[in-house]
Amino acid sequence: MKDLYTMKESNLKMKDQLREESPFPWIQYVTSCYQCQKCTSGCTSMKHLELKPHEVVKLVNMGLIDELLESETIWTCTECLKCWERCPQGAAPVNLILSLRNLAVKGKAKLPENLLKTVSSLIEIGLIQREQRVPLKNLETVDREKLNLPKLVYPSEEFKGILLSMLEEVF
Amino acid sequence: MMLNMKVAVYWGCKISTSQYSYELSLREVARKLGVELVDIEGASCCGDPIKGLTDLAATYLSARNMALAGVKGSKNLLVPCNRCHLQLSLAKEKMKREGIYSKVNSLLRRENLLFNEKLRLWHPVDFLHGYIGLDKIGSMVKRNLKGVRVAVHPGCGLIRPSKIGRVDESENPKKVDEILKVIGVETIDYPGKLDCCGAMLMYLNRDAALTLAGEKLKAVQDLEVDCLVDTCPNCHEMLDFNQSSASELTGEKISLPVVYLTQLIGFALGIEEGKLGFQLNRSPTEKLLKINFKRVLDGKVKG
């Protein structure tokens, strides 16, 4: 089977692999999807970004996975989890989208910039961002110390090493 | 009577590095209710932002934070962030699979840690509602806010997906409403209550994320409530900290006080506003405190 718009070939083996190897066990029912579109009708991202979760599921079931991995579609989900909650078949499109992202990263996909910033902070200090000074109403800025909050104890070097090696495996 | 109990708390990144008003107000409310919060030292990110990149690493991060709670000997872990609470709950489910369990645990062992599947996770919402109890909170109210009308934003992670067990019901969450009722606050139901604030989209598409937040804020503002109440630092960042950006982007004039549930509870328990971090909210909370609450409290004194 071939997508006549993009001339991409269907790869059903890849679909089985995706289902079996996904770290999200909830995607096993993805083949039960009967395209009722309940996911898309409630999708938060549909409003602005035209993410159609039922199409993602259909493409996966047709084995047109390469197409999805290269498209921006899988990077527009806001993870509101409504599709998971409301899917009558338990297909949970959000988990499928996250699985596809995992696969795209392994395939060296280009990542959104803010996500990369988050990852570099994570590698450096173990948190997604540094301690911020925050403004008061009079524009004076304060930090944890000024607010009498306890000093943060950051994760160990041992931990950062483990995390770095895990991330290096995929990047 | 003081309950005097110890509970480990995992703050997560957002609260401990920028959303200080949540940390301040939760610490104060806990102290007032006789709960001693024990911080987990050396905790890291919960893994939620990177589960789309490599879920194994995300699960490892969650499992490690839960293992650290075990080091402190705690059977209960309070997780005030909706996304962290969701991610930790998901990780608990994933760790039931042998393949993942053995991989993650072998990494944990390198720091002499062990995953503790019996750890019970709490969010301030079910902690106040179920662990402390509504009667106990009701008996300690110093400033009854009868006459204050608010809208509640439960946030996605608190209520979905019900399949793995969440803090509140997915389609009709009412725990936050019930807690607020105890301090006299009236909550109203509205069509967009279950809608997302767009926070996770900030990593991917900032404009779309802020538009979602703006639309939610405008819808709530039109209800003419005194304020919007949330329970998650990610939601709060979108609805409070980024309110002016959302307002600009959507072209709507938005000026809506947004407060944490714990700030409101703390206020009702008689804790001074400064200690609850009201000065850190970017949304117009001074209007809320000086006009709306004062109106209610003054009216009460006279009546």
What do these coordinates show?
The complex is a heterodimer of chains A (about 170) and B (about 300). Chain A has about 170 residues and is mainly alpha-helical. Chain A is built from 9 helices and 2 strands, in the order ααααααααββα. Chain A folds into 2 domains: about 10-105, no CATH class; about 115-170, no CATH class. Helices cover about 45% and strands about 0% of the residues of chain A. The radius of gyration of chain A is 20 Å and the shape is elongated. The longest helix of chain B is centred in the C-terminal third of the chain and has 18 residues, at about 285-300. In chain B, about 60% of the residues are buried. In chain B, helix 2 (about 20-30) packs parallel to helix 12 (about 260-270) and helix 6 packs parallel to helix 8 (about 175-180). By secondary structure, chain B is α/β, with parallel strands linked by helices. Chain B folds into 2 domains: about 5-120, Glutathione S-transferase Yfyf (Class Pi), Chain A, domain 2 (Up-down Bundle); about 135-300, 3-Layer(aba) Sandwich (Rossmann fold), CATH 3.40.50. The two termini of chain B are about 30 Å apart. Chain B is built from 13 helices and 8 strands. The chains are: A mainly alpha (about 170), B alpha/beta (about 300). At the A-B interface, helix 3, helix 6, helix 7, helix 8 and strand 1 of A face helix 1, helix 2, helix 3 and helix 9 of B.
